[in-house]
Amino acid sequence: MNNVTLALDGAWKVLLTGLLLGAGLPAIFALGIRALAYGRGGAAEVDAGAPPHPAGQVVGAACFALVLVGVGLGLTFIVASGFGKALAFTPWPTLVAK
């Protein structure tokens, strides 16, 4: 029974990571595109005479910043493992010796 619990625990972690990084970052990017369309108003919206919404541009920029942070951390993890280091999340991400 202990093996089944360990297997399910590992599968849950893999599923969560896959959803977060595999589908989560593209979904956040798509939300940022949609927020920019809402922020522009005009032809990007259904109503061509819609006024621009500054909040949409702020939300779009925040979504893109979040995606860039995720991509940057992923690249840092790959490069760190190539140099024989590890990526540690103390108050902020740092490279430490393995």
Notes on the protein architecture:
This protein has one domain. 69% of the residues lie in helices and 10% in strands. The chain is built from 2 helices and 2 strands. The protein has helices spanning 2-40, 54-82, and strands spanning 85-89, 93-97. The mean pLDDT is 86.
Strand order of the largest sheet: 1-2
Note the main sheet.
Answer: 2 strands, antiparallel
Quickly give the structural class.
Answer: mainly alpha
Topology as H/E string? HHEE
Mean of the pLDDT scores?
A: 86
Global morphology = flat
> What's the Cα radius of gyration?
19 Å
Low-pLDDT stretches are: none
Number of helices: 2
Strand content: 5-15%
Record field, number of beta strands: 2
Give the CA-CA distance, first to last residue: 33 Å
Number of domains: 1
Share of helix, binned: 55-70%
How is this structure best summarized?
With 98 residues, this protein is mainly alpha-helical. The chain is 69% helix and 10% strand.
Essential attributes:
98 residues; mainly alpha; two-stranded antiparallel sheet; 2 helices
List the helices and strands and how they pair.
Blueprint: H1 2-40, H2 54-82, E1 85-89, E2 93-97
Helix pairs in contact: 1-2
